[in-house]
Write a structure and sequence with these properties.
By secondary structure, the chain is an alpha/beta fold. Helix content is 43%, strand content 16%. It has 18 helices and 13 strands. The strands form 2 sheets. The chain has an 8-stranded mixed sheet, with helices on both faces. Strands 2-1-3-4-5 form a 5-stranded parallel sheet, sandwiched between helices. α1 crosses α4, α5 packs across α17 and α11 packs parallel to α12. It starts with a strand and ends in a 10-residue tail after the last helix. The structure holds adenosine-5'-diphosphate and magnesium ion. The site of adenosine-5'-diphosphate has 16 residues, from α5, β12 and α15.
Length: 398
């Protein structure tokens, strides 16, 4: 059985798709017709036990029929990734996605574009296969991990770290990660991910979105690294009208929908930040290698201990680590009163990635910071956690 099934009478599209697949493993079976079967199982009625991964509803297939088939497939073959080829009106996209179609591809896409999309569709198939529907936990326990990135000071690398965690987790769990920018006044997740979002947190906390999670999901922006982003309001003024209670509700909704919610925050602990902290299952504390920054982290942690709102899983990250700054890891640990879990070296590649709007883990060049960031991402991988739980806090060397 082929890995990709294409239905279209259009031979030109078939040939572009075949060029795209040439670089991937697996082959294509094309049904040269615009007629869709009533019973989709006939498409897969081959003696070979291997199941197809991606079904492409190609050019000239009537859209109404494509949507109807997609709905049936979503129930009968939930692991299958369904791709629709067309140029739908943006107002129609949400309706298309609701039928279970994962991706929409332009009929004029070139082989390189088709290939990127097919890779994503295959990743989706793989992620669905790893978690068979029957093994999914009951609704009550389905809440995702909420990972907040905090520090008392600005400029220490919170946004850099949050965007890399999100992109790294997107490789483990494609389309199951959302990053939320709660630096409401001056957030720069959009810039760090090279996004120009149509909607922001402002839309996501409106009554319509807080009542209906499908509306909320329509306000998320898709990023090419197979993650979703909810960016900060377009102007700092808009931030004033967002309350801590609204943020609590927002994070609850997102944790119900996504396996991972990554939260970037403003420096310090403003009210919105405290509300977010209370929703976090995991907190990443970031400090640079300067004495005021490290002391600030110590005071912050002390206050939170007194208030008893420290989430259970804590990860201390020493960023821009440099042995030539006159401080050792032991000095830092003694000051903050907690072990340093990950140290990320100062690296030009990181600074460059910020300016390009492409997080380091999106391309994973050869750079020492990549290894540290990957180590941080692994801490949120359930497979890693279950094997190394006892070593969650182990001394690092810089
Ligand atoms: N490990 C690092 N090495 C070099 N530059 C870094 C590193 N981490 C962050 N930076 C740079 O520091 C600047 C501030 O980082 P940012 O993530 O925006 O901090 P914050 O969100 O805490 O204000 C950015 O220009 C970023 O590229
Ligand atoms: Mg920031």
């Amino acid at each position: 059985m082929s890995r990709f099934i294409l239905i279209t009478p259009n031979t030109d599209f078939d040939s572009r798709l075949r060029q795209a697949v040439a670089g991937l493993y697996g082959n294509v079976q094309t049904y040269f017709t615009n007629m869709l079967p009533d019973d989709p199982s006939v498409l897969f009625a081959q003696p070979d036990p291997e199941q197809p991964e991606v079904l492409i509803l190609g050019p000239e297939v009537p859209v109404e029929e494509a949507l109807r088939l997609a709905m049936v497939l979503d129930v009968q073959f939930p692991e299958l990734s369904v791709v629709l080829v067309g140029d739908p009106d943006p107002s129609f996209v949400l309706q298309i996605m609701r039928t279970g179609i994962r991706e929409i591809l332009s009929p004029s896409a070139d082989p390189a574009q088709i290939r990127v999309l097919l890779e994503r569709a295959c990743q989706y198939h793989a992620s669905r296969r790893r978690v068979p529907a029957a093994a999914q936990p009951a609704a009550e326990s389905r809440k995702g991990m909420v990972i907040g990135v905090f520090s008392p000071k600005g400029g220490v690398g919170k946004t850099t770290i949050a965007t890399n965690i999100a992109v790294g987790l997107g490789q483990i769990a494609p389309m199951s990660v959302v990053i939320v920018d709660l630096d409401l006044q001056f957030g720069d997740v959009a810039s760090g991910l090279y996004l120009n979002p149509e909607h922001t947190v402002t839309d996501a906390v409106t009554p319509a979105a807080s009542r209906d999670t499908l509306v909320l999901k329509a306000f998320l922006t898709v990023h090419p690294a197979s993650i979703y982003a909810l960016c900060a309001p377009k102007t700092p003024v808009d931030a004033d009208s967002i309350s801590a209670d609204q943020i609590t509700r927002l994070l609850e909704q997102l944790a119900d929908e996504f396996q991972y919610v990554v939260v970037d925050t403003a420096p310090g602990l403003p009210e919105v930040g405290l509300a977010a902290l209370e929703q976090c299952t995991d907190v990443v504390w970031v400090s640079g290698m300067d004495v005021p920054g490290i002391r600030g982290l110590r005071s912050g942690l002390d206050v939170l201990r007194q208030l008893e709102i420290l989430p259970e899983s804590r990860h201390v990250v020493l960023n821009m680590a440099d042995t030539k700054l006159g401080l050792s890891v032991q000095d830092v640990e003694a000051t903050i009163g907690a072990p340093v879990d990950i140290s990320i070296p100062r690296s030009r590649a990181v600074a460059l990635s910020t300016n390009r709007g492409v997080p380091l883990l999106q391309e994973s060049p050869k750079d020492p910071a990549v290894k540290s960031l990957q180590g941080l991402v692994q801490r949120f991988n359930p497979a890693w956690r279950s094997t190394t739980q006892r070593k969650l806090h182990r001394r690092v060397v810089i």
